[in-house]
Hints:
alpha/beta
Amino acid sequence: MIAVVYSGTKTAIWKIAKEGKLIAECSMPGINPFFVDQKSLLQQLNKKTTLINHAEQIKKIYVFAAGATSPEKRNELAESLSLFFKFSKVTVQDDLFGAAIAACFDKPGIVGILGSGSNCAYFDGHHPEKNNFGLGFILGDEGSANYLGKIILKHFLQEKLPVELIKKFGTKYDLNRPEILERVYKKSMAQQFLSSFLDFYIENREHPYIQGLIEAAFQRYINTYLLPTIKQHPNREVHFVGIVAGNFQESLRAVAQKNGFEITTITKEPIYNLLNYYSN
């Protein structure tokens, strides 16, 4: 029995398989080792009946987590999980590695993540190429859910949104300026708070103003991440994974075409491809 885990900072998805067949699944808060310590992780694991019931039978766990970018952070997360899954061999890689496997399997290509966070890398068929893109939700993550959250909050607070969108936003979230600033600057888990506003984009995706914000975010992502990677690795297929890419495929493909390249595949939930890959 194996388990495959794909985790952004907001949510970790677990899939458990036996002899190639999915037998159980669950989700929990993200397990980014920069934000979740061992005690908090074990508390979350002990709340999941699905994981408790299968803990002793799972022999291998493949984890792909945002924030697991260094050997120290990967070892830290693996050790914490091993305290709960005592009979499992735990392998931890970052979410970019998982995205590359899910999108390319064993073939070379350029892989972009547009989920709760964002990233990009050239994948040689074995490992993603090292880069300096992964700067986190404060300094980076252009085009991601938390980036879009920052943009919509900024436009709401500065009253740049059209009147009808200001009304919709106020009705849906009932937040005022002091509450927003406290959630962003004083309380923990600010990234999850910012990412939560992706729902507003999805619900109002047909509004021209929202479309404009999305396309501008994608253009900034492409300028920052993708065009430099394409320049270094021309004529390679371009793939995307993540909830933002999956929900706004038409806009993403349109912006890509304006920049002179085509997108080969867009995978909204890479966990299924990862489960298939490691089950076989």
